[in-house]
Design goal:
The complex is a heterodimer of chains A (401) and B (119). With 401 residues, chain A is mostly helical. Chain A contains 18 helices and 2 strands. In chain A, helix 7 (161-180) runs antiparallel to helix 8 (187-207) and helix 9 runs parallel beside helix 12. Chain B has 119 residues and is of the alpha+beta class. In chain B, the strands form 2 sheets. In chain B, strands 2-5-1-6 form a 4-stranded antiparallel β-sheet. The chains are: A mainly alpha (401), B alpha+beta (119).
Chain lengths: 401, 119
């Protein structure tokens, strides 16, 4: 049942899920266990919960740097007004500029890495498996648009902030997930991307300490990154969460992630990143896979589903319910998603594993074949074909923990 | 900075060109919009439908005149505003409130600054 415990499903969900920001209320105070973290959910409180210091964003500052003036943040006298006394680091303004929705989506991540994180074009190209000229081209176009279309160099005013801050967090998390995914590329470079995302998240958190979702994102990245050492086997293959050697998890990172999460939850304005971090914290706390608090994880996925409406989150919830309440209950939920997620291999893997657990081997075999047909990655295909053969030769019991 | 809001919509839609009786009702949101954004609007007009358009090209000194607009598209240019804004963000806010954005598309284009030529 290893595939069920893969938090990557959840991570993937966040990428398409953050359009809506909602609220989940924890009980009074910060509870010692995540059990009390989520009591109820409600919609559309983002505007209430996102607060800004009034001075930030006052006055418009347009970027007027020359074509070559962009290697580092422009100098204050370079056509940009002097920052007000309480305006924080230029990096923050630069982040908001690089993540502006008027820029092409595929330009925001490389632009942020280039201008805010200071990575070189070859480094970005290697990390994202893109040809260098393609990266350079995107950067040139984006920088030209910032200058010529008048995209402001500022932290947005209050009424624009929820939307824009969401865009900034999304870019940071995309950098992180790119680094965390072992689907290809140079492992070392990708690890650097994780570290870079955490650095960016830390910077935004320090500059906007009143934003619980920013802190939640940082907690999520810390808690996920803590598992890095146990995640890749000696032969380079991916080790599923249930099979990881938990002694190799970075306990300091987990503690730091938990601390950040609890501090974020104290604002009583949970959002998708905080809920994701809470799920990651539950995995981190379990001494072994069997001891995982699945009912609690299922409840957190309930909350996340309310916030995002994402079918991928719904699939994760089905997996958690299967662990908490039995395979039949999980399968019913997964079946409900069959139409919406037909092209998505993890749906078929989930159905296959649950059907096998219920002894319905013929249906399980069909589901594995459907999953193989929808999987491009060769390593994953081999893994699924192995599971399929396991069924034919007497069932999947060997793979169960 | 100056921006042009180019307002595109489906001119074949039933309510695209209202009858004289319906005109006041039709214009109300536009009038309200114009008042609300008065401080940045520098100009703007609505256009007659593309059935009234004539396209002209000059090739090798010869004028080629054809009936209709230059390109057939699903949405047609139906009007514009010229704005003077602090930044793209302000222009986008003005564009988002434009009645034409509700059922069509508003394209926001910066006006090119052409440096003065020495005479």
């Amino acid at each position: 049942m290893a595939a069920f415990r893969d938090p990557d499903l959840a991570e993937e969900a966040v990428q398409d899920a953050l359009a809506t920001a909602l609220e989940v209320w924890p009980r009074d105070g910060v509870p010692a266990t995540p059990a009390a973290w989520i009591v109820a959910t409600a919609r559309n409180r983002a505007l209430d919960t996102l607060r800004r210091r009034a001075a930030l964003g006052r006055g418009l500052r347009t970027l007027a740097a020359g074509e070559t003036g962009w290697v580092s943040p422009p100098e204050p006298d370079d056509d940009i007004e002097e920052p007000e006394a309480d305006v924080p680091d230029e990096r923050l303004r630069l982040m908001f500029t690089c993540c502006h929705p008027a820029l092409a989506e595929d330009a925001r991540v490389p632009l942020t890495l280039r201008l805010v994180a200071g990575l070189t074009v070859p480094e970005i190209a290697r990390a994202f498996l893109l040809p260098e000229p393609a990266v350079a081209q995107r950067l040139v176009r984006a920088k030209r648009k910032i200058r010529e279309a008048g995209i402001p160099f500022r932290v947005p005013p209050d009424h624009l902030l929820p939307d824009r801050l969401g865009g900034v967090m999304r870019v940071i998390y995309l950098v992180f997930t790119e680094g965390h995914s072992a689907a290809g590329g140079d492992v070392l470079v990708r690890t650097d991307l994780c570290a870079e995302a955490i650095r960016l998240g830390t910077a935004v958190d320090e500059l906007m300490p009143g934003e619980p979702e920013v802190r939640g994102l940082l907690a999520l990245m810390m808690l996920t990154d803590a598992r890095r050492g146990a995640r890749v086997a000696a032969d380079g293959s991916l080790v599923m969460l249930a099979d990881q050697d938990r002694r190799r998890w970075d306990r300091d990172r987990i503690a730091r992630g938990r601390e950040l999460l609890e501090s974020a939850l104290r604002h009583r304005a949970p959002g998708p990143y905080q809920v994701q971090a809470a799920i990651a914290a539950l995995h981190a706390e379990a001494p072994d896979a069997a001891a995982t608090d699945w009912p609690q994880i299922a409840a957190l996925y309930d909350a996340l589903l309310d916030m995002t409406g994402s079918p991928v989150v719904a699939l994760n919830r089905a997996v958690a319910v299967a662990e908490a309440d039995g395979a039949a209950a999980g399968l019913a939920l997964a079946d409900d998603l069959a139409e919406r997620l037909d092209g998505y291999a993890p749906l078929h893997v989930t159905r296959a594993e649950l059907l096998a657990r219920l002894g319905r081997d013929a249906e399980a075999a069909d589901a594995y074949r459907a999953a193989v047909a929808r999987t491009a990655n060769a390593v994953e295909r081999r893994h699924l074909e192995g599971r399929l053969r396991g069924l034919r030769s007497g069932g999947p019991a060997a793979a169960d923990p | 900075m100056r921006y042009l809001l180019l307002i595109y919509g489906d001119e074949t839609a039933a309510d695209a060109y209202p009858s004289p009786e319906d005109m006041e009702e039709y214009m109300r949101p536009w009038v309200e919009y114009g008042a609300r954004w008065e401080s940045v609007i520098r100009g703007g007009e609505a256009l007659m439908p593309t059935s009234t358009a004539t396209a002209i090209r000059v090739r090798d000194g010869e004028r080629l005149v054809t009936d209709g607009p230059f390109a057939e598209t699903r949405e047609q240019l139906g009007g514009y505003y010229l704005l003077e804004c602090d930044s793209l963000d302000e222009a986008l806010e003005a564009a988002a409130e434009c009645p034409g954005a509700l059922d069509g598309t508003v394209e926001v284009r910066p006006i090119m600054d052409i440096p003065e030529m020495p005479s």
